[in-house]
Write a structure and sequence with these properties.
Blueprint (H helix, E strand, L loop, with lengths): L19 H9 L10 E7 L9 H10 L5 E7 L8 H17 L11 E3 L4 H11 L4 E6 L3 H17 L3 E6 L3
Parallel strand pairs: 1-2, 2-3, 4-5
Helix pairs in contact: 4-5
Length: 172
């Protein structure tokens, strides 16, 4: 019995374009259904203008997410460090504008922008506490230094809590 998973064998004069036997075996295998209960999206950038090209997508997601499955966070790292008086003033003005108009001053979207870098340890701890015994995929695209930090944190959390984080580095 052929156990090939090649659904498209070479096309020849007497060869079918799709191997139906293989197709039936592949589609009738029992599959583990993964139910996504939440998605946490963190966009971290130095430049405020970087939010512009993604603005439409963020607003569309915010509008479509009626069940509050997706939680989005924007981080602008070029603004003063967290706890700085200037950063606190910007944060306060931004919060007032967001409450009044429903739009973030920095990103121009419905997603509020945080200033400084995310505290990834706190982020993962919060997710772990909300999802005990869950398997969480952490997908990252960016600088290798942060990839190493996130991979290390995922490994640390896996050793000390019931939530299991799987780190995936994306390359573009």
């Amino acid at each position: 019995q052929d156990t090939s998973t090649d659904l498209y064998p070479p096309v020849g004069r007497n060869k079918p374009h799709v191997d139906l036997g293989t197709l039936m075996r592949v589609t009738t295998r029992p599959r583990k259904v993964l139910k996504t209960t939440n998605a946490y999206f963190y966009w971290v950038t130095r430049e405020q203008g970087s939010f512009d090209w993604f603005k439409g997508v963020m607003n569309e997601i915010a509008d479509m997410d009626q069940r509050n499955i997706i939680e989005m966070h924007n981080y602008l790292t070029s603004v003063y460090e967290e706890g700085d008086a200037r950063s606190a003033l910007i944060t306060m003005l931004q919060a007032l504008n967001h409450a009044k108009n429903g739009v973030d001053v920095v990103s121009g979207t419905k997603v509020r922008t945080h200033f400084a870098r995310p505290n990834w340890k706190k982020v993962l701890a919060k997710i772990a506490s909300k999802h005990p015994y869950a398997k969480i995929g952490v997908f990252y695209c960016g600088a290798p230094v942060l990839a190493q930090e996130l991979a290390k944190l995922c490994h640390e959390f896996n050793g000390k809590c019931t939530t299991k984080f799987e780190f995936h580095k994306e390359y573009f």
